[in-house]
Write a structure and sequence with these properties.
Length: about 160
């Protein structure tokens, strides 16, 4: 069994995956989405003079294809997961969840939650995902998955010298 936590925004995606041996692997995917700043036209010194027309639809269509390609790459990385949680700071994670519902129905059935979250360090993100999965997986999966994690934490706590 493999569980995956996905944090994403328009610039990157961070995938944290735990395998059945409770081994963590972290993958980072850059989005390669261009950030367009459309500036229009050449004006004249007279107010209301002629200006060039800017084709916004061309930029928006290109951006839409880049986002779709980014989601395709993420979906390819998480195909073997049995439980997913999707999080992020803006609306990209919502668009990804919507894309899973429409285009990747097998993966959509494995999504436990879609949660709004701020930017975090890797350690904060790992702790957040572990807390989430520990609280939200059913008891059978939780026993299998987090028994080792709990045992490691308990050993660490016991080995701390008391002064």
């Amino acid at each position: 069994m493999k569980i995956t936590g996905i944090w994403l925004d328009l610039n990157k995606a961070i995938l944290m995956e735990w395998d059945k041996n409770n081994k963590l692997s972290v993958k980072r995917l850059q989005s390669n989405i261009e950030h367009f700043h459309v500036v229009g036209g050449s004006g004249t010194r007279f107010k209301g003079g002629p200006q060039d027309v800017v084709q916004d639809s061309k930029y928006l269509e290109r951006r839409k294809h880049q986002i779709k390609e980014f989601f395709f790459r993420i979906a390819g990385q998480i195909k073997g997961s049995e439980a997913l949680v999707i999080t992020g700071p803006a609306e990209t994670y919502l668009k990804f969840a919507k894309a899973l519902k429409s285009e990747y129905k097998q993966l959509d059935s494995k999504v436990l939650a879609v949660v709004n979250n701020d930017s975090m360090t890797d350690n904060q993100l790992k702790a957040w995902f572990l807390r989430f999965f520990n609280k939200n997986l059913n008891t059978d999966k939780k026993k299998k998955w987090f028994y080792k994690q709990s045992a490691v934490i308990m050993i660490f706590i016991i080995r701390i010298p008391i002064q």
